[in-house]
From TrEMBL:
The lineage of its organism: Bacteria, Candidatus Falkowiibacteriota. Belongs to the GSP E family. This is Bacterial type II secretion system protein E domain-containing protein. Keywords: ATP-binding, Nucleotide-binding. GO terms for cellular component: plasma membrane. Residues 443-457 form the Bacterial type II secretion system protein E domain. It comes from Candidatus Falkowbacteria bacterium CG10_big_fil_rev_8_21_14_0_10_37_14. InterPro entries: AAA+_ATPase, P-loop_NTPase, T2SS/T4SS_dom, T2SS_E_N_sf, T2SS_GspE_N. Residues 1-42 are annotated as: Disordered. GO terms for molecular function: ATP binding; ATP hydrolysis activity.
Length: 640
């Protein structure tokens, strides 16, 4: 949010000097389209009169709020009845927590609804960069204590976002400071997530690390000046505050950035920290070379690895609570030429499992998957390169199969998400617990559905086939570039064609492409040759198949193709999050015949002649035409 900042109040009598807050500013809230709209000012008295949240037996306020949500079609009648019953129980219950945890309403939508219910304006600060001088009208201590953020200033009026409009202590403090500084305040309701994102702007990542580095340098200089002997243990050194703070900031910033992996690697003159975000590895931080060993050692301590072992690779795990979320870090330490590199895989175990539709499966492909997972026997395979989202798709399928009457058992390496009601086991090859040995044990666990993280060798493949033949539904992954390639791959492992043809149900191949940022994407000229060529490629696909995936498709209308631009909301990359582009091969009678009688010789032309099949590239092009991703991104993904 770009604003002129007039008459800054950062002086000796300002709020900052006594941890104060001011009051007044132009009311700005984003509407549903993302544009900014003015709203009437909201006075302190209005905030004070908002009735308080009540826990325990249902209060009149809770009744009214539930009725309000029902009237706005944010709850169904059944959900309203369920919540009313639950909140009326003998134990104290937080209605808002129930709404979010039960996934009745997403957090930001709940805050919007609450703001309307309380007659307060709403703003989402999560993706707004607040000017430092405006932010500092409230000290970080006050902001953290009262969960308030100053996000805008116009003349003598400040705009304040607050999480809890019924926190009278916060409002009284603001009232006092506003009067003292001859200011006016305008209040906006913000979500806890919005506050957390805005609060992070007080302490930028590089500033935090720079502060820790400076502290370490000062400590080392002090030791040299005092002539102390270096008799402290290495464990003491790596546990010291500056090194611990640097590692903590690297980890915290990785989670905040949505990184899937963190790379800490020695360079010739320094140490480079890189994050993989949305599949792209990007440099984030440079550290002095002299602290590299201490940082690596600190991570070893946290993951319970051997500090004195630097000759062989080591692997461990760290589990931390970051911003209220349980995060797992799978740590891999690799010895290089004289030094070690660390890669940490970031696994957010609190993330909900997405549906196939949310992942990007549409049309005939999704229908084929949904039909085949209803079968009680057979094998479903997900194929694709490392990092293509295979495990995420398997979790989505597992979640849809999860029910009280179904015994689901998994073998994973590692367990990336915890699914309630599913029996999940992690293999440990170092003690002989492999996919193959684990599969033998799973068969004695009376399973209905078995998920094997990966078919890596002939033994695992044979056991998976055997499990499917004996009345189980088996889900697994395989490393092939396309769905058709899974058949010759399994035959090469020694599986008999007649066995494979009888148990294989469906093969999915997939990649992950970055989604275009909806806030800054730019439409291309409809007369551009790229656009007209793309229209011709889509027109070459059977129209009924295209319309299955994209019901709005009309070959008579020009295509709206978008390209990335970059803005604050997407970190100036032009992309935000990812979508699955995929192909789904239904192992129907014609394919089974080819497996059994033609030794797995299957062509895409034969498949398309007998089923509504889209290959990965075609599915990607359709998503380009839908404005989900860009042509450049599909070309990048397909060329990897």
């Amino acid at each position: 949010m770009e604003r002129d900042n007039q008459n800054s109040i950062a002086n000796s009598n300002s709020l900052e000097s006594v941890n104060e807050l001011p009051t007044q500013g132009l009311s700005v809230t984003p509407d549903t389209s993302g544009s900014m709209t003015e709203q009437a000012p909201v006075q302190v008295e209005q905030v004070k009169t908002a009735s308080s949240t009540h826990t325990g037996n249902i209060s009149k306020k809770q009744e009214r709020f539930l009725a309000f949500l029902l009237s706005k079609n944010l709850l169904t009648t059944e959900q309203w009845q369920t919540l009313t019953t639950e909140i009326s129980g003998p134990e104290a219950k937080d209605l808002e927590l129930l709404l979010v945890k039960g996934e009745y309403i997403k957090g930001e939508n709940l805050t919007k609804a609450k703001a309307e219910f309380l007659n307060l304006p709403y703003v989402n600060l999560g993706e707004i960069e607040i000017k430092e001088d405006i932010l500092n009208n409230i000290s970080s201590e006050v902001a953290e204590n009262y969960k308030v953020i100053c996000f805008d200033k116009q003349a003598k009026r400040l705009s304040i976002g607050l999480v809890d409009p019924e926190n009278y202590h916060a409002i009284e403090a603001i009232d006092f400071l506003a009067i003292k500084n001859s200011l006016q305040v305008e209040y906006y309701l913000i979500s806890s997530a919005s506050f957390a994102n805005a609060f992070r702007q007080y302490q930028k990542f590089n500033k935090e690390v720079a502060g820790a580095l400076k502290q370490k340098e000062e400590e080392e200089r002090l030791e040299i000046n005092e002539g102390e002997s270096d008799d402290s243990s290495f464990e003491d050194i790596v546990r010291n505050a500056p090194v611990a703070k640097i590692v903590n900031e690297i980890i915290k910033h990785a989670v905040d950035s949505g990184a899937s992996d963190v790379h800490i690697e020695p360079m010739e003159k320094d140490t480079r920290v890189r994050y993989r975000v949305d599949g792209i590895l990007q440099a984030t931080l440079t550290l002095p070379k002299n602290i590299h060993d201490s940082v690596i050692a600190r991570i070893k301590v946290m993951s319970k690895l051997k500090l004195d072992e630097t000759r062989v690779p080591q692997g461990g795990r760290i589990r931390l609570l970051v911003d209220g979320k349980d995060i797992d870090f799978r740590v891999s330490v690799m010895p290089l030429m004289g030094e070690e590199k660390v890669v940490m895989r970031v696994l957010d175990t609190t993330k909900g499992v997405l549906t196939l539709d949310q992942l990007g499966f549409t049309g005939s492909g999704r229908e084929v998957i949904e039909t085949n997972i209803k079968k009680t026997v057979g094998i479903l395979l997900i194929t694709g390169p490392t990092g293509s989202g295979k495990s995420t798709t398997l979790y989505s399928i597992l979640n849809s199969l999860n029910a009280d009457g179904v015994n689901i058992v998994t073998l994973e390496d590692p367990v990336e998400y915890f699914v309630h009601g599913v029996n999940q086991s992690q293999i440990r090859p170092e003690i002989g617990f492999t996919f193959a040995s684990g599969l033998r044990s799973l068969l004695r666990q009376d399973p209905d559905v078995m998920m094997v993280g990966e078919i890596r060798d002939a033994e695992t493949a044979e056991l998976a086939i055997h499990a499917a033949l004996t009345g189980h539904l088996v889900l697994s992954t395989l490393h092939t570039n396309d769905a058709i390639g899974a058949v010759p791959r399994l035959l090469d492992m020694g599986i008999e064609p007649f066995l494979l043809g009888s148990v294989l149900n469906v093969v999915v191949a997939q990649r992950l492409a970055r989604r275009l940022c909806p806030y800054c994407r730019k439409a291309m000229n409809q007369n551009d040759k790229i656009v007209t060529d793309l229209a011709a490629q889509i027109a070459a696909i059977k129209i009924e198949i295209v319309k299955k995936s994209w019901p709005e498709y009309d070959p008579a209308k020009p295509l709206n193709i978008y390209e990335p631009v970059g803005c604050l909301r997407c970190g100036h990359s032009g992309y935000k999050s990812r979508v699955c582009i995929n192909e789904v091969l239904d192992i129907e009678d014609h394919v089974k015949e080819a497996i059994i009688n033609k030794h797995g010789v299957i062509t895409e032309e034969d498949v398309k002649a007998n089923q509504p099949f889209l290959n990965v590239n075609e599915d990607g092009l359709i998503k380009v035409c839908q404005g989900i991703t860009s042509l450049q991104e599909i070309m990048r993904v397909m060329n990897e």
